[in-house]
Amino acid sequence: MPTKAPTFFAIARQPKWIGALLLALAVAAIFALLGQWQLDRAFTKSAPTDTDIKISTVNVMIDSSHVFIAANRLQDGEQGYWLLSNSRDEAGKSVTLALGWSPSYAEVKGEYDALKDSVLVQAFMPMKGVFLPSEAPKPLDSKQPYLLQSVSLAQLVNLYSPDKPVASHPEYLALCGCDEGMAWPPLRPIKVNYAQTDPINWLSAFYFLEWTVFAGFAVFMWWRLVKDQLIRDQLETVN
């Protein structure tokens, strides 16, 4: 009498595959928790309003070798530009600074050239402003690599140090002038409005999708291994 071919569920009920399933579910749960954490981070900045804006003061040393211009900066209903610069705080972390705003590209480009060519005193200086979330990266212009279409810290950190990773503050500091007048003369202080920032941290949203895929893949791997065992057992039964 021919031996009955095993079924998928007969294989899956074996103790070793039940244990493997529990392990796969545990791994999937960890990945799901990591995904939930990234999802929470993706929408962290959607809640604050103008009245919630917190002024911060950070002591930094400006890195004039890494200066950029950010386009499409809306202020008082007028499009303009920001002057950006890398810096490092007293802990050695990179802090991206948005130094000031101007509606004139020529003015910002002049300050860009002046800062690039300057010899700044290597000392920590207090910078007062508002920390803002990173934006989604946009493609660079090969003819004007210093002119950015967004303020993406992931993109900027790679520009600061393309060969090795650097520790970076998770947000950038926009100098608002606050009660001290001009932020970076002759540029105007940046008027911070959370409505003008991207409410979604797209990098965290991408990581959420990535962790979700990993969670599903952990369970899929268990199914695939059981399926392979089933095929081997069926071949042995036929032979």
> How many domains in all?
2
Cα-to-Cα separation, first versus last residue: 14 Å
What is the makeup of the main sheet?
A: 5 strands, mixed, barrel
Overall shape: it is elongated
Total DSSP E strands: 6
Widest sheet, order of strands = 1-2-3-6-4
Label the structural class. Answer: alpha/beta
Q: What proportion of the residues is helical, as a percent range?
A: 25-40%
Radius of gyration: 26 Å
Beta-sheet strand percentage? 15-25%
Order of secondary-structure elements: HHEEEHEEHEH
Number of helices: 5
Which stretches of 5+ consecutive residues score pLDDT under 50?
46-51
Q: What is the typical, i.e. mean, pLDDT? A: 86
Q: What is the strand and helix layout of this fold?
A:
Elements: H1 8-12, H2 15-42, E1 56-75, E2 78-89, E3 97-102, H3 105-117, E4 125-133, E5 147-148, H4 153-160, E6 171-175, H5 202-238
Parallel strand pairs: 1-5, 3-6
Antiparallel strand pairs: 1-2, 1-4, 2-3, 4-6
Write a brief structural summary.
The protein has 239 residues and is an alpha/beta fold. It has two domains: 8-41 and 210-238, no CATH class; 45-198, no CATH class.
What does this structure look like?
With 239 residues, the protein is α/β, with parallel strands linked by helices. The protein has two domains: 8-41 and 210-238, no CATH class; 45-198, no CATH class. Helices cover 38% and strands 23% of the residues. It contains five helices and six strands; from the N terminus they run ααβββαββαβα. The chain has helices at 8-12, 15-42, 105-117, 153-160, 202-238, and strands at 56-75, 78-89, 97-102, 125-133, 147-148, 171-175. The protein has a five-stranded mixed barrel with strand order 1-2-3-6-4. Strand 2 (78-89) and strand 3 form a beta hairpin. Helix 2 packs antiparallel against helix 5 (202-238). The longest helix is centred in the C-terminal third of the chain and has 37 residues, at 202-238. The two termini are 14 Å apart. 25% of the residues are buried.
